Amino acid sequence: MFALKVKYFFINQLFIFLIKILLIMYVFFLNLYFKIMETEVYTAKDFISDQEVKWCPGCGDYSILKQMQSILPEINIPKEKIVFVSGIGCSSRFPYYMNTFGMHSIHGRAPAVATGMKLANPELNIWLITGDGDGLSIGGNHLIHLFRRNVDINVLMFNNEIYGLTKGQYSPTSNEGLRTKSSPMGVVDHPFNPLSLALGSSATFVARTLDRNPIHLREMLKRSQEHKGTSFLEIYQNCIIFNDAIFEDYSNKETKNKASLYLEHGKPLLFGKNNEFAVILEGFSPKIVSVFDVDENQLWIHDERDKTKAYILTQMFDNPLESGIPRPFGVLYSEDRTTYNDSVIEQIKTAKKQKTQSINDLIAGNNTWVVE
């Protein structure tokens, strides 16, 4: 009888041991599965949605869409953690065409919506899509506060200097004198300088690119993604219907070398067909010289961390072919600063550790008065 009990005891222990081994193997392979899923390799096709793209043929938005879909596989973030948020306008149809999560939100209020998303789920990789009208007119107030708070969000502004969706009214970035349906005698408003506005609002990453330069566009999209904080990328985007060729000087082979200045951190500001021209500083004013007429130590070396020089670069905003001073493209400014979402999360953690106050105590505060 004793021998039988011992036999059953060892069989029972063996059975329990096998069950444990099976459970360990199950957990191991389950974790392995999730790890493989997290490191899933994407291609550009994985980010193309099943929605018909409804922009005008020849619109610059197509170029931006294609480059975005091509760089996302390289950033190695699961699709379910990527969100595109937009306001209202031609550019704001962007979330429909991305095979990720997205929200087509309220006119000008995309920064508020995106901020709420980031605070609710800090792991999200959020791209805010806006235009010069949506972002700088009705949404201007929301945008500047997004910049100063430094929420970890990537902002892409499609600037075509016109209201396209509402069929051709002038926008906050339209040039003075432009004749449109809402300015038949010419625009009298002075235009916004988006990069100057962003820098003045304490943005921590300020850059500019062009829809017709896909290689540079790709590079700037990736730089925007790499930045920790609010990245602001202005994209010159051609509206073929209502403001065609407004940025032609920066893409036409006859003029682009004179009109465009492509910035590289740590390198001198050179431009021209053979980089025969340089930008130097006389005090705080840029001056164009021949590279053969100045010493190497006189050249302006681009420093993305120098806010004063970044401001000077934003002011190189006049017509390049008339003023002789080229328009800068690339990263004008970048700095490291604590993000708003990190600060809020840290404050919540601290608050939870402290003694809980009643709502009446919070309202009353520390100052009281006695009225006799």
Description:
This protein is of the alpha/beta class and 372 residues long. It has a domain at 44-256: Rossmann fold (3-Layer(aba) Sandwich). The protein contains 12 helices and 11 strands. Strands 2-1-3-4-6-5-11-7 form an 8-stranded mixed β-sheet, sandwiched between helices. The protein has a 3-stranded antiparallel β-sheet with strand order 8-9-10, with no helix packed on it. Helix 7 links the parallel strand 5 and strand 6 (231-236). Helix 2 crosses helix 7 and helix 4 (132-138) crosses helix 5 (140-149).
Can I get a quick summary?
This protein is of the alpha/beta class.
Architecture blueprint of SSEs:
Blueprint: H1 2-38, H2 61-75, E1 82-86, E2 101-104, H3 110-120, E3 125-131, H4 132-138, H5 140-149, E4 154-159, H6 194-200, E5 205-210, H7 214-226, E6 231-236, H8 256-259, E7 260-262, E8 270-271, E9 277-282, E10 285-290, H9 307-314, H10 320-323, E11 327-334, H11 340-353, H12 359-364
Helix pairs in contact: 2-7, 4-5, 6-9
